[in-house]
Design goal:
alpha/beta, Rossmann fold, six-stranded mixed sheet, two-stranded antiparallel sheet, 11 helices, 8 strands, elongated
Length: about 280
């Protein structure tokens, strides 16, 4: 897939950097945990298979994460547009940390937020954790009556039907529908995994309407750490690795049986997929 290659090329150029451990004199990619031998070995295997030219120009962890989000959003937009015939609609993609209260399924939270802000006791109890701001969002605009009636008259202002569905623009003007909430984690540590799960549970519990796709994309090289996000069911739909094929090859070459076993558990259990699978899953 040409888009996948372009995606990896941008990540190599903008995100992946080589760090130096001054005490040990060792070098490792910035997706690796420099203190973990397996992490370093597998990360090097991925970088080499992607053909990334080594770059030592410093990029902070926060900057790398932001670039990873933007590049991933661009890939999803380009790939999903190619599948427009499978999932027609007016779609929008953003990495602007937009609050979910701006979307149809969660608009009631904006009222709740206003009430809580005025009450210190409620504010101390609830905080603002229920107002999720996903790393990447995919939204769909409601459809006009003209679009609905393109083949036959289905709805009209004179007909007393379909008055409540948010898909119809006449019912919910200027209120987009949240189609997907995507968490991006260039690397995974235990605290980051917990934050992603907490956000997912808030999306599930606080919705009024259908649940958006809730997924995570990562560049983490250790399957045992990916498992902190991917194992189990009920919160995230699935986790996607930015280079799953390269990860599999790197682990096989490294000969780390524990990591290979966990990787197969995640893949066979349908909890981990490649980034190229994500646009197709969003079309379901």
């Amino acid at each position: 897939m040409e888009l996948r290659s372009d995606y990896h090329s941008r990540i190599c150029q903008e995100v992946i950097r080589i760090r130096r451990d001054k005490k040990k004199g060792a070098e490792y990619p910035n997706s690796a945990d420099g203190g973990n031998k397996s992490s370093v070995q597998i990360a090097w295997g991925i970088v080499q298979r992607l053909g990334c030219p080594p770059s030592y120009r410093q990029v902070s962890e926060q900057t790398a994460g932001g670039l990873f989000e933007k590049i991933t959003r661009d890939f999803i937009e380009r790939a999903f547009d190619l599948l427009h015939h499978l999932r027609p609609g007016r779609w929008h993609y953003a990495t602007t940390q937009t609050a979910i209260s701006g979307f149809s399924q969660y608009e009631h939270l904006s009222h709740l937020e206003r009430v809580i802000r005025k009450d210190k006791e409620l504010s101390s109890t609830w905080g603002g954790d229920y107002i999720v701001k996903p790393d990447i969002i995919v939204t769909r605009e409601p459809v006009t009556d003209a679009e609905i009636n393109i083949n036959a008259e289905v709805v009209s202002p004179a007909k007393d039907c379909a008055r409540l569905t948010p898909l119809r623009e006449a019912n919910a003007p200027h209120r987009p529908i949240l189609h997907a909430s995507i968490s991006c984690k260039w690397t995974i540590r235990s605290d980051r995994a917990q934050n992603t799960r907490t956000e997912a549970l808030n999306l599930i519990r606080n919705r009024k309407g259908h649940l958006p796709h809730i997924v995570a994309v990562t560049g983490e090289p250790l399957p045992t750490r990916i498992a902190a996000l991917a194992l189990g069911t009920g919160d995230l739909d699935c986790v996607y690795h930015f280079a799953l094929e390269e990860l599999q090859e790197a682990i096989a070459t490294a000969g780390n049986q524990d990591q290979e076993d966990m990787l197969q558990t995640l893949i066979n259990g349908r909890r981990l997929r490649d980034i190229s699978d994500l646009p197709f899953d969003l079309a379901t």
